[in-house]
């Protein structure tokens, strides 16, 4: 049974989101962000999966930065998944993050602007998938708040949540270590992001 948040993003609101978030400027900003994040890795990222890829803005950026790597996206909204599939050299899986099961592991698993829209009661399951699907790095780029809060999202309640997602993951999985973190301000004059805080973690055993 899908959560209210999943139904919300799978339907008309998710379709409308596509129109607001599909342009070249977003790809440029995303490329700048991921260039910074990848510079904190060992240069050994050969496979990536994004949980909640929407139309593939981040996938396009990563394919440009990692042309020889395997780039995969998971997306619940059918229309968004169809758009993302038009990207050359990427794989798109249509489905729910909460129902996703895979035996495959990736060098980098990540979410960007997605965990904030997950029902808090289901976060533990998403953390588990991010962790289990990674054999090396996990990256979270979301709205940060030291304690969990819920705020209105475009007139809708219980659709956007802020918290310390990365901190919670590191508390749950003791073998995760923080590699680097950063913040991108919406008033950045060159490559703005929507006040995103990002955290790159690595499995100590990798």
**Helix count from the secondary structure assignment:** 7
Q: What ranges have pLDDT less than 50 throughout 5 or more consecutive residues?
A: none
Based on CA inertia axes, which overall geometry fits? globular
Percentage beta strand = 25-35%
Helix content: 25-40%
What can be said about the biggest beta sheet?
7 strands, mixed
Strand order of the biggest β-sheet: 3-2-1-4-5-9-8
Structural class by sheet pairing and helices? alpha/beta
Q: What number is the mean pLDDT? A: 90
- Report the end-to-end length measured between terminal Cα atoms: 35 Å
Number of β-strand runs = 9
What is the H/E string?
A: HHHEHEHEEHEEEHEE
- What's the Cα radius of gyration? 16 Å
List the SSEs and their pairings:
Layout: H1 4-10, H2 12-20, H3 24-38, E1 47-51, H4 57-65, E2 70-75, H5 78-84, E3 90-94, E4 106-112, H6 123-132, E5 134-142, E6 149-153, E7 156-162, H7 165-172, E8 176-184, E9 196-203
Parallel strand pairs: 1-2, 1-4, 2-3, 4-5
Antiparallel strand pairs: 5-9, 6-7, 8-9
Overall description:
The chain has 206 residues and is an alpha/beta fold. It has seven helices and nine strands. The chain has helices spanning 4-10, 12-20, 24-38, 57-65, 78-84, 123-132, 165-172; strands at 47-51, 70-75, 90-94, 106-112, 134-142, 149-153, 156-162, 176-184, 196-203. The strands form two sheets. Strands 3-2-1-4-5-9-8 form a seven-stranded mixed beta sheet, with helices on both faces. A two-stranded antiparallel ribbon has the order 6-7. It is globular and about 40 Å long. The chain starts with a helix and ends with a strand. The relative contact order is 0.15.
């Amino acid at each position: 049974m899908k959560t209210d948040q999943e139904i919300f993003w799978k339907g008309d609101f998710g379709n409308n989101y596509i129109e607001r978030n599909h342009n070249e400027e977003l790809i440029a900003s995303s490329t700048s962000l991921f260039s910074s994040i990848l510079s904190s890795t060992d240069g050994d990222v050969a496979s990536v999966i994004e949980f909640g890829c929407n139309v593939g803005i981040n996938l396009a950026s990563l394919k440009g930065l990692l042309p020889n790597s395997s780039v995969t996206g998971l997306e619940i909204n059918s229309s968004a998944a169809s758009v993302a599939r038009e990207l050359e050299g990427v794989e798109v899986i249509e489905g729910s993050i909460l129902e996703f099961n895979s035996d495959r592991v990736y060098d980098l698993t990540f979410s960007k602007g997605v965990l904030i829209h997950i029902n808090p009661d289901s976060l533990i399951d998403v953390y588990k998938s991010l962790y289990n699907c990674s054999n090396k790095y996990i990256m979270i780029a979301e709205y940060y708040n030291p304690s969990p809060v819920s705020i209105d999202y475009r007139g809708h309640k219980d659709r956007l949540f802020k918290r310390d997602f990365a901190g919670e993951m590191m508390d749950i999985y003791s073998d995760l270590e923080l590699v680097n973190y950063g913040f991108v301000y919406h008033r950045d004059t060159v490559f703005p992001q929507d006040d995103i805080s990002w955290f790159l973690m690595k499995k100590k055993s990798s």
